[in-house]
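Look over this record before class:
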Amino acid sequence: MERRRLIKAGAAGAALLLTQGVAGADSYNKTLAKRKINTLTNKKNPSVLEKKHVPLVEAPKSVKKGQWFKVRVKVGFMIEHPSKPDHWIDRIELQMNGKRVSEMVNVVGGITSPNAYFEIRLNRSGDVKLEAVANCNLHGTWLSEPIHIRVA
């Protein structure tokens, strides 16, 4: 009887933790949505902050419909963003036509790369716009320049 009560208590505790985790993610996403989104202001003469924080999306210019392909997001389109215990990229999001399709979260700085790799497939022919949003724990949220992919 005691064992059964212990198992039930453990399951209830795990469910509570999972619920709090999801609520925490929703709260974070709402906070992120309210933040100012920084962009590259002068392509010919970017600031040091822009060089280290504006993400760069790397992907093929064209892909076949339904086939998987790789997308790399590099934070710091000219200078790689640092990754230190007190200064790192905590989230990288991939957007397709303005909507989030995937994201990577780094909960600890100093040991995580300021790059993300996604493998995606597109099931409709036409042109697709990919962008990345990166969040620096010290310098805010940054949006990449868009790239366009032809899906045939």
